């Protein structure tokens, strides 16, 4: 919000100004309804409609960023000769030595309001550590010239920016966070985002706001994103995501359904001594998760570089005490710890949190400060947009042998990471540019040490909120447990009436928990794919109500008041 203040001298003029305004209105024609309507805010479809002039230009790593660079942009449907022009950067306004490269991929997307096309060019044969200028278009209609710099072939120092969920208040709130991040690190080489750029997967106006907020940055620095749950509509990945992000094709290999599900969201990129690994935490089906986990293991173990940064959406240790991402924690956490990953960067919980495993604080040199020093991965969660959660706490950390050292809600942040030789510096700042949190990782022949800037925050673990799926099943043999086993109260008859030959996995129900309300005599069944909860009359087997939620469902429960969680 911008505050308005009026100087003392100006206030003396207000009466005169008011008279002038009234007088002017007396001589103004009466506005017709049509004229009045034209003064209203333009509809999103009018604000973000495509044309033959390129927009939504974004750099992504197609391969080795020292010699290649991918760029994608949008036009209206019908542009058939998409191409880009490139040359080494020059100070002259009419450069020669231009190379023209035709688009290698053209994707048509139909939205609620219009048809649009996305075009991708891959520049190859580039020289490491060199600044280039480029523009995109169709031979007649071009974008402005923009610059990018290829990666060095060696582990030279560089910076990158880490952003959490954008999702809500994209242009109105998140844009200032993104711009302040670039104000503080104007030469950042990479922008890394942990999922949920938008709230509705295929809402083109929201994607338009993303580029309103960060178009210059996307066109000049490489953008690495992980897919969040809001990049999905049901089980389908956003068509905009697939069309506009040309990520490396180095994820799990194969031609089967699983590899197809993960394509474009699971990938890695090496940049000046750092391996960046993007994971997809949305698909927790056992078979899909097993394929992704095996790929992660191989990608971590084959890393030839000093540093490793992994990023994905759902935290292994949730800050929201009503969530429990058990499947990915059990699959990936042992690999992060065994391979001593440096940073694990996440989103989803719309708060800030940072910590480490308890093991990272054990068996360390006696000279280390136990409040500041440890060895092991740093786990962080952050948020950019205006949506915030309040039911936060350390429960998931404590119950899974981890130490939540920093927790803060209702704050928008960005993170700056500087990599230089044996040192990685991590710093979190609030939307207004104020320092909030920080640490330094040093890694050399003597080993690795993480040093926090400040001692851990005291976080009250009392009165935790409900955590669906967290609590272990009660022990029926424990005499103090009131739920002791009893005799069955009845039998159930069933009949097999048919068989299903095949299932469309993208539309199939994916169970997400169940709960029974004794007071209402109703059974509640969650479906993760459809984001629905079905209320079932257990006497008639009739579905009496279907509740559709805006987010994926992880579990279903009943609280002490017999209300649905």
From TrEMBL:
Q: What is the organism field in this record?
A: Labedella phragmitis
This entry's Gene Ontology molecular function terms read: acid phosphatase activity; metal ion binding
Which SUPFAM superfamilies does this one have? Metallo-dependent phosphatases (SSF56300), Purple acid phosphatase, N-terminal domain (SSF49363)
**Signal peptide extent:** 1-32
- Classify the source by domain of life: Bacteria
Could you tell me which PROSITE patterns the record lists for this protein? TAT
Classification via InterPro entries: Calcineurin-like_PHP, Metallo-depent_PP-like, PAPs-like, PAPs_N, Purple_acid_Pase-like_N, TAT_signal
Residue ranges annotated for the Calcineurin-like phosphoesterase domain, each copy included: 160-352
Q: Where does the Purple acid phosphatase N-terminal domain start and stop, copy by copy? A: 54-150
Q: Which Pfam families match?
A: Metallophos, Pur_ac_phosph_N
Q: Where is this region: Disordered?
A: 447-491
Name of the protein this chain belongs to: Metallophosphoesterase family protein
Protein keywords: Signal
